[in-house]
Amino acid sequence: MKFISIFITITLIFILLSSAMATQNINVAVVNFYGDGSKAFIGAGFSETLSEKLTKLDNVNVMQRESLRPVMNEMGLNINQKFDAGKGQTLGKTVGVDYLVSGTLKEKNNMVKVTYQLFKVKNGTVVAEETLNGNMDHLFDLQGQLAIKIANYFKTPVSDDVKTKLYFMPTQSMASFEKFSSGLRLYEQNRIDEAYGFFLNSIKGDTAFLDAHRYFEYTARKTGKLDDFIKNYESMLSSDPDNPVLMNYLGNAYLDKGNIGKAEELYRKAITIAPTFGNPHNNLATIYVFGKKFKEAIDEFEKGLLYSDRKAPVFYNIGLSYINMGDKDKAKEYFTKALEIDPKNPDFVVARYYIYGVKVVVTSREKKVPGGTFGEVILNSEPVFEIQDSTGGFSPVERAKIVAGRLQNMIADGLKPYEIEAGKVNREVVLKSSSGQVIMTITKKASEREGTTPEKLAKVKLEVLKRILTSSTAVSYSSGGFVLQGTGDKVKDMEGASKEATYLHKGDAYYSEGKLDKALEAYNKALEINSSYAPAYFCLGIVAFDNKDYEKATANFNSAIKSDAKYIEAFIWLGKTYDAQGKETEAKDAFSKALKLDPNNSEAKEYMSEK
């Protein structure tokens, strides 16, 4: 059985966003091969498995498609549509790759025609294109041929061992591959619940299909179905008690649930059965890190290195372990190896600091606000961007992490303050570099919360970014090498587009910390400055609702609506407030008005369908 190492995502600094096995830096991303015919859906699975195979080339870094998809969503590009070369240069610059691989896949009567294109971002042109034909049963042979053609273009040596990996069949079952591809297509359409069942059936068809395990794990986390995930893996393991792949992924789930002892037991058993399977070595090492057993962690990471295709993150984690042991020279040795392989990995924050002295660190965090949860992007100790909505299956917190990683890469590549500008991409107001890389989209909803327009908010954020990059204050690190948020023990308050917006952000910060009295004081201060500032009324309404003071909540939500007659969230919460009091007529009226403003609002539709 062939195993490919997938290192689990547990903590901020142990996250894999890009994969690599390289000592030279050619950065590549694979967009979907557009399918045609009765099995058009297999284009998604073909693209995913091709992306994994290209990581085997010695001078190629491949961006994981799970990281590529949200960027494309923010740019208004559908990963499932035929690739638009006209937008390729902007996409490539934004995600920081040198080449984009795309193509078409046409199936008829069990025959398949695969056409691939290699798009060079710097030139904005297709530099290689070819069509391959074959039988569907030999689809992975065509994939291997395609990978070798890409390797030849990059002048990458292909040894017999690498060639074997490029022709490797990720699954022995085409039925399993088709289920995986169908699930992936649904997953990329944000139909996560539907995708869950397809990934599960794909695994049941072939428990050695690692790509299916990986995406089944993603969907379980996103849908909150870890208990069901565990139940399914326990059931499969009872029928196949010596399967190390099942043990590894079941261990991941137990670790997510906080059952470290059970996870460790499963990883150890998987290693005993399959000592050349890299995953459980790396995951066991992570458990040692949690227990501050850094020497044991290093020993296990070193074992994982022998069998891992993704070496850069393992080098980085070994470096972190040496930092925690106080051996900075040894840490620098491993940080250097990690950065030589994957210089653009946004998670290698500490490595950049110790090797390059990068003094601006971009991080992200979850921020609880009245009525929801935002993602926040922080430069050093200063919050700069707020992300309010989920897009493409990614929560605001996940999107904030993606934006932070992208911006960190741009800074590490030498982004200068004078290179940042406001502009438009696909009719959206954005902050971008002068070379066209998108930093952040400034949405209408975000600007409305600030009481301004997207254009004016972009100017405010532009000045904040320039100021931080110009000052470049040093970053503080703990003795263990972990980034500290700022020079003190508190992140600064976010600067608003107006004085009232600044007080709104101050109130949000207090609310997130559970300091409701101070939060109310800040929201009321915002209203003293601007008595028509709807977001402040809304926040006061939420606090009153939480305290079951429905009379005060009603008054504040109505004040918010009076100030902004299109404030959908205020209508929703006004409806909830009436519903909590048993005032069904008033509740239905409020939800109906919300639906008129947004016919697709899920909360309003759900309420109305139940009444």
Care to describe what's here?
This protein has helices at residues 42-54, 65-74, 88-95, 139-153, 160-166, 174-188, 192-205, 210-223, 226-239, 244-256, 260-273, 278-290, 294-307, 312-324, 328-341, 349-356, 396-412, 444-449, 454-471, 499-512, 516-529, 534-546, 550-563, 568-580, 584-597, 602-610, and strands spanning 18-20, 26-36, 60-63, 99-108, 111-120, 125-135, 362-369, 372-379, 382-387, 420-425, 428-433, 438-442. With 611 residues, the chain is of the alpha+beta class. Among the domains are: 1-170, Rossmann fold; 362-471, no CATH class; 507-513 and 523-610, Serine Threonine Protein Phosphatase 5, Tetratricopeptide repeat (Alpha Horseshoe). The strands form three sheets. The chain has a six-stranded mixed β-sheet with strand order 1-3-2-4-5-6, sandwiched between helices. A hairpin with a 4-residue loop joins β11 (428-433) and β12. It is globular and about 75 Å long. Residues 1-23 and 473-489 have low confidence and may be disordered.
